[in-house]
TrEMBL record:
It comes from the Eukaryota. The lineage of its organism: Eukaryota, Fungi, Dikarya, Ascomycota, Pezizomycotina. This is Methyltransferase family protein. Keywords: Methyltransferase, Transferase. GO terms for biological process: methylation. The keyword Transferase applies. The keyword Transferase applies. Pfam families: Methyltransf_23. InterPro entries: SAM-dependent_MTases_sf. SUPFAM superfamilies: S-adenosyl-L-methionine-dependent methyltransferases.
Length: 302
């Protein structure tokens, strides 16, 4: 986790989908906070307020959130699990989302770091954390980066400490959408697969996390799945339209970095793309979209 000096900025040259700082596919700036907080609330609603599945026994656990953004997950961890006296730490590739260190944020220790490289030795973090959490970075790392990222996190855990990885099976590899019945959801799969393929990312990482952890020597590896419902399949009826709107916001930035020739199988022009997003929003609101969100945990050997 190499410390970096500048906030993340949009990529201006090269592959328009290369992502922020050359690796992050989705927007990474202050405008993202609202969407990220909305996503967090939807996850809470869908999982019955479950933020933690790792069996933490320490009374004063030291936790690191990788991809912490504005610290929302850390603050809610403290709120929803008050039986612990948490020591809250977070890292992110860009500091643009970090809050001012005041009010409830005073308890957060946030650093701008690149998780693909080992953490700087001056932080003194090696072997110091009881829990490392990382969520929804499927569009944050290239496929080739995952082993190094997880190895770096293993080094930061105490013996017996836990890692918790939370990723979503955005594309169901076993049950694809019928294009005749769900034309826009089927086209969504094309978009998701294409966007990760051209950026070297792994749309199926949620299926592979257990194997990654076992290969690194983690023990007691297990997975717990929840349904992450959008639109008509949102767990709370009041979340139907808001969750459909939230889902579409995931893709709107693609139109701002439009690739020459368009997106194969999705749209040739920006206008076609934005119309597709509107049609997709309506389809999600009417029939729903319900991928599984996986909580995968593993324990560092004693």
């Amino acid at each position: 986790m190499t410390e970096v000096e500048k906030p993340a900025q949009p990529v201006k040259k090269g592959n328009p989908f290369a992502g922020t700082e050359g690796i992050y596919l989705l927007p990474h700036h202050i405008k993202e906070i609202e969407r990220l907080r909305g996503q967090h609330r939807l996850i809470l609603s869908s999982t019955g307020n479950t933020l933690l599945t790792a069996p933490i026994k320490e009374k004063k656990p030291r936790v690191l959130d990788s991809g912490a953004a504005d610290g929302t997950w850390l603050l809610d961890l403290q709120r929803l699990y008050p039986q612990y006296e948490w020591s809250l730490h977070g890292v992110d590739i860009g500091s643009a989302l970090f809050p001012h260190k005041s009010g409830p944020y005073e308890s957060l220790d946030l650093h701008e770091l690149d998780a693909r490289a080992p953490a700087p030795s001056n932080l003194g973090w090696e072997g110091s954390f009881d829990l490392i959490h990382q969520r929804l970075l499927i569009w944050g790392f290239q496929k080739k980066d995952w082993p190094a990222v997880l190895k770096n996190q293993l080094a930061l855990l105490k013996p017996g400490g836990w890692i918790q990885l939370v990723e979503t099976q955005w594309v169901d590899r076993d049950h694809p959408f019928d294009a005749a019945q769900y034309p826009n959801l089927a086209k969504q799969t094309t978009l998701q697969t294409w966007s990760t393929d051209v950026s070297g990312m792994d749309i199926f990482i949620a299926y592979n996390l257990e194997d990654h952890l076992k290969e690194l020597g983690f023990e007691n590896v297990s997975k717990r799945d929840f349904v992450l419902g959008y639109g008509a399949k949102a767990k709370e009826e009041s979340q139907n339209r808001p969750s459909a709107d939230l889902w579409i916001k995931t893709f709107t930035s693609f139109g701002e970095r439009w690739p020459e020739g368009g997106i194969p199988g999705v749209a040739k022009t920006k206008e076609e793309f934005y119309q597709f997003l509107e049609d997709l929003k309506n389809e999600v609101s009417e029939v729903g979209y319900a991928p599984k969100i996986s909580y995968v945990i593993g324990q560092k050997p004693l």
